[in-house]
Amino acid sequence: MASRRELSAARRIVVKVGSGLVTAPGVGPDPDRIERLAGDIAAVRRDREVALVSSGAIATGMARLALAERPRSIPEKQAAAAVGQSALMWQYEIAFKRHGLAVGQVLLTAQDIGDRTRYLNARNTLLALLAFGVVPIVNENDTVAVEEIKVGDNDNLSALVASLVEADLLVLLTDVDGLYTADPARDPRATKLDVVETITDEILTMAGGHEDGVSVGGMATKLQAAQKAAASGVPMVIASGREPGMLARILAGEPVGTCFLPKADRLGARKRWIAFAAPPQGRLAVDAGAARALTAQGRSLLPSGVTSVDGEFGAGEVVSVVDGGGREFARGLVNFDAAELRRIRGAKTQEIEARLGYKSFDEVIHRDNLVILGGS
Asked: What pLDDT score does 141 carry?
C-alpha cells in the first residue's frame, strides 16, 4: 500500500478506542460516545468487516466501585475489570443493536496469543464472528491477567489482533489527532506528521510514556503498535476519536491523522507470530560476525556465534537475539534448550556431538524460524 488513497480498498479493519473515548470519569460508559462510535463503525461496515478493540473495563469498574484512583494492586484491577466489563459490553450491545448489528465479546491474554495452538484458536473464533456479520469487541482479559501474562496495553493488543485476522487497516482512535514533532501543548512550533514511511529512531524520540488515572498507554505504545502493524503489512492511522465520521474520512483518503505505511515485504503468518505474539523465553547474545550473517546475509544462527545464554527455555521456544551492546535485533525458535546451548555456545558445528554426546541440529536457530526486527 503506497498511499492514503489506497486505504479505501481496505475490507477488513481493526479499530481501537481508548478508555477516554468511551467512558466518563466517575460515571463509566458514556452512552452518547459509544452510540456515536457504533454509528461511525456501522456507516463504514456495509461492505467491510470491522473488529473493535476497546479499553474501558477498568475505568467502568472504577466508577461502579466509586474508586477515585486507578487500582494499583493486581487483585483490585481484576475486580474492577470484572465489575466493569459486563457493563461496558451492555452499552455496546445496546448501541450496535440500533444499527442492526450483533456484537461478540473476545477477551485475550498474552498466553492466548503466545501459545501457537491458542493463537490459532483465537484467530478462528474472530474470523468466524466476522463471517457471521458480528462485530467482535476485543479487550485484554484483565480479570485473570497478571504481569506474566499481560499484553499490557490495547495499542499493542490491537496490532496483534490486526495481524491475527490479517487486517487491511488498523485505526487507533484517540484524544489526539496524530503524531506531532513535539508536544503541541508545550511547543507551538510542533507540526503534525501526515505520513510516516519508516519508524526511525528520530520518530521514536517524538513519543513519550503516559499513564493517567484512567488509561494506560500514550504515543510510545502507539508507535510500538505501528511497528508491529508495518511488519505485518498492515497500514495504521492514528486519528482523533472526538470528531464524528472519522473512520469514513480515513477510508476516503482524506489527510486526517497520521498514516503509517507498511513494509513492502510483509511477514508470513508464522513469522508474525514468532516476532510479535510469542513472548521470548530467553536471550542469546551473539558476536558481530553472527549478527552480520543474520541481518545482511540471511544466514542461520550457528553455535559458534553465540557468546552468552540467559534464561531457562526449552527447545522449540522463542528467544531474543541481541548484539554485543544488548540490543535485540531478532527473534527465533531455538533448536536446543538453555542447558544444551550453554554447553555448545562458541562451538563449531562439527564439535556439537562431542560436547553433547549427540547432534540433533547444526543450527541454533534456522533462518526459516528467524525474524529480523526493526529496520534491519
From this structure: 83
Widest pairwise Cα distance in the chain: 70
- Identify the residue whose cell numbers are 531478532: 330
pLDDT at 17 exceeding the cut of 50: yes
| Residue 145 buriedness (CB in 10 A; 0-12 / 13-18 / 19+) | buried
Give me the residue label for grid cell 562458541.
346
C-alpha cell of 165? 485476522
Torsion from C-alpha of 106, 109, 113, 118, nearest 10 degrees:
-70
Compute the C-alpha angle 34/38/39, nearest 5°.
115
pLDDT band at 146 (very low <50, low <70, confident <90, very high): low
| Residue among 195, 239, 223, 244 nearest 5 (CA) | 195
Complete domains list, the chain, with CATH: 4-271 (3.40.1160.10), 280-372 (2.30.130.10)
What type of residue is 159?
A: A
Q: Please state the φ and ψ torsions of residue 17, each to the nearest 5 degrees.
A: -125, 140
Strand, helix or coil at 368? helix
Distance CA 27, CA 48 (A): 33
pTM of the predicted structure, to 2 decimals:
0.81
Residue 308 to residue 4: CA distance in whole angstroms: 45
Amino acid at 305: G
